[in-house]
Amino acid sequence: MADVDHIENLWKSINRVDSYITSSSFRTALLLTFNVAIFGASYKAGFFETITDCSLFLVILMAYVLSSAASVICALYAVKPNVGSSRQSVFYFIGLANDLCAERERERFINIDQNKLLDDLYWQYVDISKVAVKKFTWQRRAVSMLILNFFLFSCLLIIEKMF
Q1: How many CB atoms lie within 10 A of CB 159?
Q2: What is the pTM of this model?
Q3: Contact residues for 112 (Cβ-Cβ < 8 A; gap 6+)
Q4: Rounded to a whole number, what is the distance in angstroms from the first to the last CA of the chain?
Q5: Which residues of 23-45 are buried (b: 16+ CB within 10 A; e: fewer)?
Q6: pLDDT in single tens digits along all 163 residues of the chain
Q7: Which of 83, 128, 133, 149 has its Cβ near the most Cβ atoms within 10 Å?
């Protein structure tokens, strides 16, 4: 039989992963902001208006635009909601939000025994952990593209000063 400590520890774990997801979303918003700032600086610097015979400049400019787009797309995937669950859960908010099911779910919640509650919480922990891994993977890709983006921006500044 599940005891209260098991349930409490599982809730703490779920809340910890949830806080990781929340902080990840904040960091991703910062990534998007930084991307826009760099892109705006490149526009203000006139990179897109520069007509040059330097094919290196044009190749780097194209790579820069592509890395900017890739970074933004990865960041958007990182903040994209991913709330699907294949399991029936008394804690799954989409099922609870449906007015037709709310009363039935209330009865299930009230009558759940501790072992089923522990099992339900465990699967919620698994689901939220999968969401966290997806968010972190997309965020890591966005950061990698942003680093490349910043490097290419620096190269463009140097090449522009040379010509």
Answers
A1: 18
A2: 0.78
A3: 90, 120
A4: 76
A5: ebeebbeebbebbeebbeebeee
A6: 557 788 888 889 889 998 999 899 899 999 999 999 998 888 888 887 776 777 888 899 899 999 999 999 999 999 887 766 656 666 666 555 655 566 676 777 777 788 888 888 888 888 889 889 999 999 999 999 999 999 999 998 898 888 7
A7: 149
Q: What's CA 22's distance to the chain center, in Å?
A: 9
What is the distance between the alpha carbons of residues 14 and 60, in angstroms, rounded to a whole number?
A: 44
Contact of 135 with 29, CB cutoff 8 Å: no
Give the C-alpha separation, 31 to 71, whole Å: 8
CB atoms within 10 A of CB 84: 10
Angstrom distance (rounded) from CA 128 to CA 81 = 12
Q: How many CB atoms lie within 10 A of CB 152?
A: 22
